[in-house]
Structure formats: C-alpha cells, structure tokens
Amino acid sequence: MEGISIQIVLTFTTILFFIGLYGFITRTNLIGILISLELMLNAEAVNFFVLNKYLFPGVLQGSVFSLFIIALAAAETALALAIIIQVYRMTGSVDVKEVKDLKH
After folding, report:
1. In sequence order, which residues have a C-beta less than 8 Å from that of residue 21 and are 6 or more positions away?
2. How many domains does the chain have?
3. What pTM, to 2 d.p., does this model score?
4. Where in the sequence is the domain holding 27, given as residue range(s)?
C-alpha cells in the first residue's frame, strides 16, 4: 500500500459508493438494487481498512470494522435473496412495481 496514495484510494471508493447509490436509486429490479447496496457497503469497508492503515497502522480496529461490514453484508444478502425468491414465487417477477402491488 505504500505505492498508492490515500487520495487515490479515497477517490476510488467514493466513485464506487456513488455508482452504487446511483444504481440503488435508478434500478427497478430487486437484484440490481441488492447489487448496488453491496457495492456501497464494500466501498465503505475498503474506506475503513485504508483509513486505519494510513492513520493508525498499529491498530486493528479498521480491519475489525471491515470484517464486521463484510459479515453483515453477507447476512443481508442471504436474507434479501430469500425474500426476493419468495417475491418471485408469488408474482413471477422481481420488479419493484410488483412488490408495491403486493401491499394492496
């Protein structure tokens, strides 16, 4: 990591986060929304790890937070996929509009 400056990494993760945010806002497919959410969570996990490495190299708190985010994202993905599969079984589609129609 000594060859890469912190500005480059933070710029990269900021771009990744906003690509995920754009996808989260504009997608109508539940799978696309889930992928965008995962992209945002992974960008923040990289931020925690990199900021910990550059600011406090002897402390592992940023790495622990990164691992916690990854574990949380894995659990969230498993639960979201189970819900999406159930919605698909009920409606035959994974479109957000179909999920809104389930309320009525």
Report:
1. 36, 40
2. 1
3. 0.82
4. 6-96
